[in-house]
Design goal:
Number of domains: 2
Strand content: 5-15%
Distance between the termini: 68 Å
Structural class: mainly alpha
Shape: elongated
Length: 198
């Protein structure tokens, strides 16, 4: 018989187990349920993020909802891997989940907004480990970790990067033989000044 047999009549490879597409959809629904539960339980962080993401005056983190949508899409896209992964709840993960929750409560009560917002993805991942196990959680490391691109802690590195850029430009200008004086994020040249904006 020729190899032109339609794909739907071919047998599954040896050792492969057939998994219903409904299993993947149920697993995605379970992950989305955990995602929603974390968002509701840790509502002060969710509310702070929503305010940050809708602050059109500053526009620094208005991409937050897009990042969230991409993360959720990455979970849906991984449904086939999720359906193949065995669900084995890791009850010992409840201990770090409780410790992270206590740290979150402390950060929230101490009004350390960036810290309690940064803890939410870690809490979500730990909840996934506790409820679904390490194999499922391993598949979801990237979608959950991707959420960090929507969090405000990146702005803390701006000053460091500004300083580094100013020093590097100062060195490069000096290497060309042009006299330069670097002070903070401003490079003084004979013909004017360059300011590294943040």
């Amino acid at each position: 018989m020729s190899d032109l047999t339609p794909a739907k009549t071919r047998a599954a490879p040896a050792g492969a187990t057939a998994v219903s597409p409904a299993v993947g959809i149920r697993r995605v629904a379970l992950v989305m349920g955990l995602w929603l539960a974390v968002a509701v339980i840790y509502w002060p962080s969710s509310l702070a993020l929503a305010r940050l993401w809708t602050n059109v005056a500053e526009e620094t983190y208005t991409h937050g909802f897009l990042i969230l949508a991409i993360s959720l899409w990455l979970v849906v896209r991984a449904r086939h891997k999720l359906s193949a992964a065995p669900v084995r709840p890791a009850l010992p993960a409840l201990i770090p989940l409780l410790l992270l929750s206590a740290l979150w409560v402390w950060a929230w009560r101490a009004a350390i907004q960036e810290l309690h917002m940064m803890l939410v993805p870690v809490i979500l991942f730990t909840a996934i480990v506790a409820a679904l196990g390490w194999r499922v959680a391993r598949i979801l490391i990237f979608p959950v970790g991707y959420l960090y691109f929507a969090l405000p802690f990146w702005s803390n590195g701006v000053f460091l990067l500004q300083d580094l850029s100013a020093k590097m430009v100062g060195v490069l200008v000096w290497l060309t033989g042009v006299p330069a004086f670097v002070q903070g994020n401003v490079i003084e040249l004979p013909s004017g000044a360059i300011r590294i904006a943040g």
